[in-house]
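Researcher: Let's do a round of design. I'm pasting the structure tokens now; please hold your answer until I've finished.
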């Protein structure tokens, strides 16, 4: 005898495999918080512990205004990570994180094998995701801006 449809919907494995948008928002929330904490730790190290070394590393890349760019990158990682954790001004902070990670992937780590720069590529892709998608339902942005017309056609 075939189980009724209601019985199949109670199966937790089926619910996990075929999640609803609510569960997708929970996963999106976990990703956002994890990536935000990762950015905070990297930014804290650069901004408050080894700023002089980070400035020298940026100077070695041959970028103009090395001190300004180093401080900007460290601030975008630290403060952008905090904003990402709370889901506040997510698209704006993710834009700056995307710019920072673009430089990290394509300038600072240029010529390095993929397996040594895959973490910075993952951070870049996550930053791009949050820049286009925003913070999701479990965020301060959603509380403040949920009634505004969202121009994004992409939905999780």
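Researcher: That's everything. Go ahead.
Model: Designed sequence:
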């Amino acid at each position: 005898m075939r189980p009724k449809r209601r019985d199949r919907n109670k199966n937790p494995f089926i619910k996990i495999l075929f999640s609803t948008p609510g569960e997708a928002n929970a996963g999106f929330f976990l990703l956002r918080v994890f990536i935000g904490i990762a950015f905070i730790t990297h930014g804290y190290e650069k901004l408050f512990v080894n700023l002089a070394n980070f400035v020298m590393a940026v100077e070695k890349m041959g970028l103009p205004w090395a001190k300004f760019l180093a401080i900007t990158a460290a601030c975008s990682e630290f403060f952008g990570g905090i904003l990402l954790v709370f889901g506040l001004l997510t698209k704006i902070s993710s834009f700056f994180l995307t710019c920072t990670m673009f430089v990290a992937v394509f300038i600072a780590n240029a010529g390095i094998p993929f397996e040594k720069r895959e973490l910075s590529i993952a951070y870049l892709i996550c930053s791009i995701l949050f820049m286009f998608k925003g913070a999701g339902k479990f965020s301060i942005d959603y509380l403040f801006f949920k009634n505004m017309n969202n121009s994004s056609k992409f939905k999780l």
